[in-house]
Amino acid sequence: MRVCLSLGSNLGDRLRNLRVALGALDSRVDVLLRTWSHAYVTQPLGDEEQPSFVNMAAEIETTLEPLELLHVAKAIEVALGRRPGERWGPRTIDIDIVLCGLTVLDTPTLTVPHKEFRNRAFVLVPLVEIAPEAVDPVTGCTVAELAARPAVGGLVSERLPETLEPLRLEPRRDRDG
Prior knowledge:
The protein contains four helices and eight strands; from the N terminus they run βαβββαβββααβ.
């Protein structure tokens, strides 16, 4: 299944946190990291006294079901020092499942497509860079169409010039068995 993820960090070495999260995803036998966007500096939602975020998007191919992928994402967040906290609060890493192909899912622990992604420039701007043709199964609009709407909020300050490379802390597992 093709999955679009949003990743963000505003604590510690933000770029390293994103690179390690990409590497952790890519080291799994059940996940293939297809592509990822540049990193973007963005202003935080909610508590504006916290540090700015660095956000990016990644596209993966996975054999995992959405809830299984959520558990993988949460385990990576915990491994990178994420602690439970306030909504929209500071965090070392945040990994959100934005789209899972054309899957629509609404459970107490996971909603796909992500509930707020259509209204967040810090999700849509990186996502349109790597998957402009991806379709929101709820609205039928492409990511590019959603990003072009004037009502999109969540300020994106700048695109960082360098391309982040995944940082693997564990060796890549053999995908062939």
